[in-house]
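I hope you will forgive my troubling you with a question about protein structure. The matter concerns a single protein, recorded as an amino acid sequence and a row of backbone structure tokens. Please examine both parts with care and let me know of anything in them that strikes you as inconsistent. Here, with my thanks, is the record as I have it:
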Amino acid sequence: MTPQNSNPSGRAGYSASAGNTEVTAAENFKGAAFMVLSQATFVFNDALMKLASADLSLFQTIFLRGLFTTFFLGLIAWRAGALFRPLPMADRKILALRVIGEVGATLCYLTALFNMPIANSTAILQALPLAVTLGAALFLGETVGWRRYSAIAVGFIGVMIIVRPGADGFNAYSFWALAAVVFIVLRDLVTKKISNDVPSIYVALLTSISLTVTAAVLLPTTGWQPVQAVSLGYLSGAGCFLMIGYLSVIAAMRMGETAFVSPFRYTILLWAILLGVFVFSELPDFWTIVGSIILVITGGYTFYRENKLKKRAEAQKASSQKKKDIPDSQDERGIWPEKTEDLEKAEELINR
């Protein structure tokens, strides 16, 4: 499936411009270019998997692609010295949950992809930023204000426009794509809990191994189909595109600012539509395009709000630290510090 937030090298949970507060315009544009490249390669990976599904079963395609991807990731992990390392018990439990999320997401998404237009399945996945925001509020206790809740509600409308349950020609496999979103939210939320001592390349390699083993276990349920050279070429190409996507998204997130680079993830929709038209002769209908536009706008707004709130929190933290360094007699809040604190809290709630 298309990885949305993968970071196979460096530290787990490494974010966009961590440790890089001064990002130039040139770096931002380079980061955006890498992000566009990553989304293109992820869609090419999906397209090749869909082509391979014409002759091979779901589990066979996952297994064979997993062999290539695991080999590539293993080489990178070996060169990075992250191939073998002891893990704390807490990280083991979190990684187990992450593997469940990744395996479930891959099985659900590829089931949808193999049975519906690539542009439609890709469009449904664009609800992910909104779903992650909602999940963080419900399960991690993160504060989400009315503006972002409104964006989530509007984004849900966009998903329903794409899925259109009850409409003529409705494809029930859309629900598999929605289930994939749920599993990806689980994966991304537990990823935030992985300690910084665990390299991301280790996490990615463990995930790839788990996917490959799961597919191998489930293979007897569908049987083994003869593998033609063309199918093997599709799957090896899919593995290569997947690795290029991993490396490109890392370069994008390390080079540019999150708020600038992340919205370029939505270029994946353009690539999916182009491949759907020219490779699979699948032209998205009017309502799929409308729903996709709604998701892009609401998702982009969510990125904007999160970045704005992050900057405000950093400014407030710096201001608080500055006030601590000022003697009480010189406190800017004067003789009514409690009232000032109440006003600051009220302003923060309004801005959310």
User: Anything to note?
Assistant: Residues 5-20 have pLDDT under 50 and may be disordered. The radius of gyration is 22 Å. The first helix runs from residue 25 to 52. The chain is about 70% helix and 0% strand.
